[in-house]
Amino acid sequence: MHVAASGEDLRAAARLLGVGPAALAPELLDPGARLLVGNGAAAHLRRRWTDEGTTEAVVVHRSTHVTGRAGLLAVAAAWGCSQVRDAGTGRVVEVVAPPADAPLTERFAHLAALAATRVEVAVALARDTGRDVRKDDGSWSMAADEAAHDAAAGTLAPLGVPVLSEERPDPDVPDGEPWIVLDPLDGTGNFRAGLPPWAFSAGLVHRGRPVAGLVVDLSSGRRWAGTVDTGAQRDGVPARVREGSTVVAPSGRTVRVPATAHRVRVTGCTAVDLCLVADGSASAWHDLDRSGTHVHDVAGGLAVLAAAGGVALTDDGALLHLRPDTEELIRFVAAASEQGARDLTAAVLA
């Protein structure tokens, strides 16, 4: 079974479930729902919170018994759910973590999804607690940032990999070893203003290359995930880069429209920006006319971008190599193709 993503999938699911396509169509656009179809079966899932504060994927409508199917359990795991519940029978199936000898990217993907779910709770509980302070650079350090870091770092700790975060001093990372970098709450200014999006971002980096990542728009529930082994997905549906004329850019006092672009979008959340390039909503992102961006802002999104077939080049045209240093500022272009990145660089720096 796979997550429905087309009109053909929708009609097939509706036929198997015995309902009209119009009854299911809105679920294709809802990050809190999944419509699964394939192998002669269909299921309609909703994500919900249990009384214990965990999340579960609830099968609200199905064509046959599907609760324990591998495809459905994989969707629930990527959704950050701890279990699957059949609303009709009450049957509950636990989502099992990958074994200890599974690839690190697979184990990271599982725990990162759970971490994002726990961050959702932590951020909500920390909001409006009055413990927000302004930092020396004028940006805000919020209680929600601290709560998000604690929830995420604790969840990822079993991997035994060094974790870097905007909220903590950098640990030592041995040469050649993998490391994780978090932005527990990217878009803090948006979050404080109540202006979407704001996001959780986590990336796994090995030898300077982002090999697995997860970005969750906490304001809407949208999830982008990707690994070098499995490709990229947006809300469970495969995602690929796409050439185009829309560029996303960081917020700032001025925003230029490069000659290669017809329009520029500014979201105020870098992690989400990079994922919009990864899923084809935009063709490129850059910070070439800014002082630069920190690794914790971009590692998760860059992993999704790479898994979706995109590229990231520095301002001098080299492939971007990430370093375990959250203080360093990096300037680069993320694009659907290497040629697109070079064309945008030339237009911005002209």
Automatic annotation (TrEMBL):
Q: Where does the source fall among the domains of life?
A: Bacteria
Per its UniProt record, what InterPro entries does this chain match? Inositol_monoP_metal-BS, Inositol_monophosphatase-like
Keyword set includes RNA-binding = no
Any GO BP: inositol metabolic process
Any Pfam family the entry gives: Inositol_P
Could you list this entry's UniProt keywords, alphabetically sorted. Answer: Hydrolase, Magnesium, Metal-binding
For this UniProt entry, the molecular function terms from Gene Ontology, in alphabetical order, are: inositol monophosphate 1-phosphatase activity; metal ion binding
Identify the cofactor(s). Answer: Mg(2+)
The positions annotated for binding Mg(2+) are E166, D183, L185, D186, D297
Keyword Oxidoreductase belongs to the record: no
This chain's protein is named 3'(2'), 5'-bisphosphate nucleotidase
In its UniProt entry, the species of origin is given as Geodermatophilus amargosae
